[in-house]
Amino acid sequence: MQKLEAAAARLAATPEAKGRYWRRDIEEVMRTKDDLYYRVEERAMEVLALGPDREVYGWREPISSKPYTAGGLKAWRRDGSPRLCPARGCDKNMPASSSADLDLALELADGLKPTLTELRSLPKEPAALRARLLESHDAQVAGEREEWLAGAASRLVDSPATPGTRAAAYLLLARAPGIEVVDGVPGTFGLDGLALQSEAGQIVIDRRTGQLLGRQGLTPEGAAWRAEIVKKVGWSEVRPVPPARCVRCEARL
Length: 253
Hints:
Layout (H helix, E strand, L loop, with lengths): L1 H11 L8 E13 L5 E12 L4 E13 L2 H9 L18 E2 L17 H5 L5 H9 L4 H4 L2 H12 L6 H12 L5 E3 L11 E4 L3 E5 L6 E7 L5 E13 L13 E3 L1
Antiparallel strand pairs: 1-2, 1-9, 2-3, 3-4, 3-10, 5-6, 6-7, 7-8, 8-9
């Protein structure tokens, strides 16, 4: 817990870049099997961005699908190296697709959908943040309180909230039922850091800076089988431009 507290303190003290547009680029990785029984690793880039006049942008671009084990690579070559999709160039008519419902870009949990201004104004101390979030909890529609709170905090850590609020969200999560702080996460997808770990997955944090590195999904045996790797996040003056022919990749909140 001390290492997490130290990392959170470093994050909270981090100055933010200035700009009107917030953007987050995440590389999604999933290991699966396709119809030909190769063990395949699929990669895609997921982008979410917000602008000053309630604009929201979001799209997903496939990158690659390829075998990730020696046996799978051998079988794939034996079958003539067939093209594996989804991957860049597989669908020339739609090289990118819209993200999930852009209207929910700022939703943290059932019944909790702050504006960008409200999100940026959330408390930077764990107890105060907990109290503020719970003001929106409605047991009639949202279910169990602690589970709802953990879900909201989990969404906060990679949102446009201030560094102080995101640091407080780490500490809220660390105290949530069923979550433990783990050091030395196996770097299956290159994620190496402190982790807030539950049965289903891990939120991985840079020990040195406190910045979010990404998330990993875990099998019941504890092996990482998918990941969301943060490639870029922050504020700038650069207006996001969705890829050509991307349908419903812009909206207004």
